Amino acid sequence: xxxxxxxxxxxxxxxxxxxxxxxxxxxxxxxxxxxxxxxxxxxxxxxxxxxxxxxxxxxxxxxxxxxxxxxxxxxxxxxxxxxxxxxxxxxxxxxxxxxxxxxxxxxxxxxxxxxxxxxxxxxxxxxxxxxxxxxxxxxxxxxxxxxxxxxxxxxxxxxxxxxxxxxxxxxxxxxxxxxxxxxxxxxxxxxxxxxxxxxxxxxxxxxxxxxxxxxxxxxxxxxxxxxxxxxxxxxxxxxxxxxxxxxxxxxxxxxxxxxxxxxxxxxxxxxxxxxxxx
Length: 278
Description:
Layout: H1 3-24, H2 29-34, H3 36-46, E1 61-64, H4 70-80, H5 120-133, E2 140-145, H6 152-163, E3 169-175, E4 178-179, E5 182-183, H7 184-187, H8 193-199, E6 203-208, H9 212-224, E7 230-235, H10 258-276
Parallel strand pairs: 1-2, 2-3, 3-7, 6-7
Antiparallel strand pairs: 4-5
Helix pairs in contact: 1-3, 1-4, 1-10, 3-4, 3-9, 5-6
């Protein structure tokens, strides 16, 4: 896909996020929206996956370590064709397979159940080690939150990844600077994030995580990097794309009411119309 096509898909991913969280009357829109461009690039450009064969052996793997942003992952999976887009409106409903956090046993395209913060990257490292042991050519991607990396397990996993020279692993940190209790540098600062990953023998790339040119260049650079894992520090805007949610901590885990939903969808409709005129 070219940049404009990716931007259009990302806008649809954002519509799916807002729609599903509104329908659930619960969920995490802020961090889902900030990572929407990353989800879009992974599933529509970067990863070798096939919605018609979600468990094919040579597929690339993705682990959503910050599992609470499942609305973003689900929206991308639905648009990719893993399940009907209409099912997004069943998010968190009793009996729905679209739970509040990813469930690998019931959701097509989900490679690892996640939600306990800090644990997803360990699973991804294990998958990458398995790939090396099997001489498989699949790649493993994992998305972490910047509040999540305050968890010690993240750095244990990173130490192993660097030590094992896992060049088939890409760790992405959605660095929107806000977590549930406030700004990350006021809660328990993980900065400088890039230097920490460098200390664990990662190749580190800093980007604007809402800019497809920079996202594209970063993932190409990661593919070209041999002998060490890559960490992409994606500087993003929490709530990206919805005017009243952007950079507002209150939208970390709050669902929009009917009036707010209408405003949000109008915001995204205008973005879509502008993209169609390009």
